[in-house]
Amino acid sequence: ARAALARAARLGVSIVVFGSSGARNVPAGFPLADAWAQLRELLAALGPVADGLGITIVIEHLNRGESNILNSIAEGGRMAREVAHPRVRVLADAYHVRQEKEDPAILAAVAPVAHVHIAEQAGRLFPSGGDAELADFFQKLRATGYAQRVSIEAYTKDFPADAARGLRVCRDLAGAT
Q1: Quick check: pTM over 0.85?
Q2: pLDDT tens string 115-167
Q3: Of 12, 70, 109, 131, which one is least surrounded by beta carbons within 10 A?
């Protein structure tokens, strides 16, 4: 992990996402409380390493269809609080919030959020506009004072068109010009 974070820092990376369901899923029969403790221990050890490199590690919550631990933004926030290191923070993913049927109002409880992922619910596609739930997510996010980057984590068959439209939608939702 030290070598990977050092390489990321040399490339100018400032945010590293702790997601990867395949790497962090809890094996069948392994106690969930022990897995939680192991993840907390790992993140607590990575915090000082990331700090020395100017990197923030953000904990991505993944829906139950993709992972069997850290499934809600509330759990991501709890893990960040337990780790209690300024370089280990929470990521808010609008797609996973919707998949887990979480109320975006939870954003106020886990703030400050350090990074955001979005996609439209149907098909996990680039934002196209007119998505009331995504607009509500952004409104709740803005209410926390978040004014940083937003990553679109979506599928596409036409990247140039979808990316241009997605950027316009994100700027509109964020209230940016």
Answers
A1: yes
A2: 999 998 778 999 998 889 999 999 999 999 999 999 999 999 999 999 999 99
A3: 12
Instruction: Say what the alpha-carbon torsion angle 21, 90, 35, 18 is, to the nearest 10 degrees.
Output: 40
The set of residues, in sequence order, having a beta carbon less than 8 Å from that of 128 and lying 6+ positions away, is 120, 165, 166, 169
Q: What is the mean pLDDT of residues 21-37?
A: 95
Give the bridge partners for 113, in sequence order: 90
Strand pairing of 88-93 and 56-59? parallel
- For residue 5, give the nearest of 60, 46, 64, 59 by alpha carbon: 46
Which helix (H) or strand (E) element contains residue 174?
helix 159-174
What is the chain's Cα-based Rg? 16
Q: How far apart are CA 49 and CA 55, in angstroms?
A: 9
Cα 118 → chain centroid: 9
